[in-house]
Amino acid sequence: MSAVTSELRDDGILVVTMSQPPVNALTVQGWFDVAEALNAVAANPAVKVVVLRAEGKGFNAGVDIKEMQNTTGFDALLGANKGCFAAFKAVYECAVPVIAAVNGFCVGGGVGLVGNADIVVASDDAYFGVPEVNQGALGAATHMARLVPQQMMRSLYFTAATIPASELHRFGSIYRLVPRDELDAAALAVAAEIAAKDGRVIRAAKEALNGIEPVDVNHSYRFEQGFTYELNLMGVSDELRDDFAGTEKGKK
């Protein structure tokens, strides 16, 4: 069963749901499934807007480290990097606006998805972070920089600290901040406002806004990934991922 499901409502809102228990840390296939669901929008004019959401206690915990550490060679590492790139790119280049509905934790790859979304709606228990340095990787600074000011991004990146949704709402990065039980309704309400517009205009507007971006997010993120490959070749990443996997196992 796929960790990603899609439902097209009669009003033109496509709801894409991630569900990979226990923490929505997506496998390699899961990242490509997200990309496939969003890329398919281009060929379906019935879709007016996308709501990207998750089931469970948190939105997304990034890459499945256990899959990576339990796979021989570099196939899982290469797959995760390519899968994340594909998923983030698909969110950014989706033919219609993407609204991220974020609950609970949103870390690592989750920030990559949300940072590339057009609109963010979050529950008041949500928090965001890029703990990549703890696992010997780099990435998603490109996307965190779209959510917070530059020095704040650097502080969060170097310390691997998290930031609550209330702070992002203060920065204006989060459009609506609501109680957890109102999250889906709030995201759908924003989506309905967009879906009520002429879809041809909205698709043109999405392409136009991407065209005036000051930073090429695809190139920027790919540049970050190059350093992740270097750290893996040095053996640093594998050592830190083993430590992380062991710590998580010890918690059970």
UniProtKB/TrEMBL annotation:
Highest taxon above the source species: Bacteria
InterPro entries: ClpP/crotonase-like_dom_sf, Enoyl-CoA_hydra/iso
GO molecular function, one term: enoyl-CoA hydratase activity
Keyword Lyase annotated: yes
EC number: 4.2.1.17
Group of enzyme by EC: lyase
A Pfam family per the record: ECH_1
Keywords assigned: Lyase
Signal peptide: none
Name of the protein: Enoyl-CoA hydratase
Organism: Aeromicrobium panaciterrae
